[in-house]
Amino acid sequence: MDNINQKQLCETAAKLFNAMPFNQMLGFNVVDVNASYAEIHFDWQDNFIGNPLKKILHGGVTAAVLDTVGGLVAVANEIEKFESSSPEYIANRLTNMGTIDLRTDYLRPGKGDKFIATAKVIRSGSKVAVCRMELHNSDGKHIAFGTGTYILG
Length: 153
Hints:
Layout: H1 3-19, H2 21-26, E1 29-33, E2 37-43, E3 49-51, E4 56-57, H3 59-80, H4 87-95, E5 98-106, E6 114-124, E7 128-137, E8 142-151
Antiparallel strand pairs: 1-2, 2-6, 3-4, 5-8, 6-7, 7-8
Helix pairs in contact: 1-3
C-alpha cells in the first residue's frame, strides 16, 4: 500500500471518529491523524461542568477525549500495517478494535475555552497497542494525561 492510500485510510478513520454520535455530542473534532500521532480539539460547553462552584471540566469528558484520541492513533497505526490487504480485511480488523484499559491522571482543573487532546503510540504489537495521551487547554496548560491499551482486532 503506498503512502497516498495510507493517508486516505487515516482520513477515513478521522471521518469515522468525527461521525460517531458520542463524539459529535461532545463536539470532538479530529484535526490531525497519522500512524504515530493524533489530535482532537473541542470547545468548552456549559454542560461539561463537573464542579458547578468552580466551573471546571467534568472528569468523564477528560477521560472520554483521552480514550478517543488514543483509540484514533491506535487505529491509524494499525492501518499502516495493512499493506496489500483487501478492504474487507481492513474493515474486519477495525470493527474488532476496542479499549482494554484506560488510565487517566488529572493534573489540574480543566479550565479553558478550547481544549486539545493529543496521542502517540508507545508500542504496537500484533494484538495490542499502548498509547500515551495528553489534554491541554488553549493556553497550553497541561490538564491531564493518560495511558490507553487497545485491542487490535
